Structures are given as C-alpha cells and as structure tokens.
Amino acid sequence: MSMGRKRWLAAGLAAVLLLAGALTVGGSAEAASVNSSGALRYAKGETAYCVSPEGWLLLSGVNPVNGEVNRAFINMGIRVKPQKGMLAAGDDFIAYVDPEGGFGLLNRPYLASENPLAAAPKAGTATQMVAAGTGHLMVLSDMGEVKVYGRNDFGQLGSADGGYVMEAVSIAAGEDSSFAIDMDNNLYAWGRNHVGQLGLGDKVDR
Length: 206
Prior knowledge:
Layout: H1 3-6, E1 7-9, H2 11-19, E2 30-34, E3 40-44, E4 47-51, E5 56-62, E6 69-79, E7 87-89, E8 93-97, E9 103-107, E10 127-132, E11 136-141, E12 145-150, E13 163-167, E14 170-173, E15 177-181, E16 187-191
Antiparallel strand pairs: 1-16, 2-3, 3-4, 4-5, 5-6, 7-8, 8-9, 10-11, 11-12, 12-13, 14-15, 15-16
C-alpha cells in the first residue's frame, strides 16, 4: 500500500479532527458526547452505548454480539476507560480499551475458520485507541502502530491481509473506510470511496 497516495490533508484539518468531540465519516451514523453526569455516550446505527462514570459499559437497542433487542440500557459486565476513542462497534462486535489500557473484544460467535477478527489482538494487549466500521476494526497500539482487522471488501484494511499499516497518533473509521493521523499531522484515508469520502478528488477505492 502506498500511504503517500492516501494522504489528503495536512496540519489544519488534522488538528480539527484530533480535537473534535464527534466525528461522522463515510456515511456512518456515529457520534460521541459526554452528558451532564459525566457518562460517555456513543451511538452507532441501531445501538446506543453509555460508559458510566464508574466505567461500566451499558447498551440499549440491538446488541451486535447476539442480536437481541434491549429497550433500556443493560450493563454488559465490562469496564471501559471513560474517554473518547476507547469504545468502537461494528455490525457484530464491540471493541474497547479497559481502565488499565488493555484491549478488549466482544464478538459474535463464529467458527474459528470463519471469524473475520480472528487475528485481532489478545485481551489485555496495551492499546491507545480503537475505531470500527461495519465490518473492520482499527487498533492503535501503545507503540503508535495502526493495525486493521476484519473484512476487506473495499481495501479498508490497508493491505491484502490486514495487520500493520502505519504509525499514527489518532484513528477513525467510516462504514468501509479507514483514517489515521501521523505524528506530522498528516491525515491518511483508505478503503471505500464510492461517494468521494476519502477526499482524494475521485471515487476510486484504494
């Protein structure tokens, strides 16, 4: 993958993205906010999440792990670091960073040979941030390495088989697109581009 081809904006917009409290990319209905009680709320598609001030992950709507519909928030029994970028969800998984900075994943049951996230980090792996599209997961390690796992229909993994892509300080994901900011505040984008969401002046996936 030629990351030079994927860089589309530098310091100005990159700084805005780093500071933004909410981000919508690739047509994905996704936002994060903090309510008056200090709980972090996160919504995506038909599911709403709330990280309580004590760090417990609460969920309402469609549970992406088992498909059940919950009309009120339920406690998922896991603790999440209560900061932005510590929680991400796809169509059938929830990824998070625990209070100790360790990676966590709730995944819909699959046969081992069919699990699109089989190569994802082990539980507890030191992690700075997570981001997710509908079927792919981005993980920013404590060493600043971006790795992407899951489906690769539109090149959203950044390579043929996923895994390591680049070094970065921040990440974000659209439905089938991936974004990262490097240490020089350059913004990179790759994956689906059917409506020009990568900002590269065309509609070519890459």
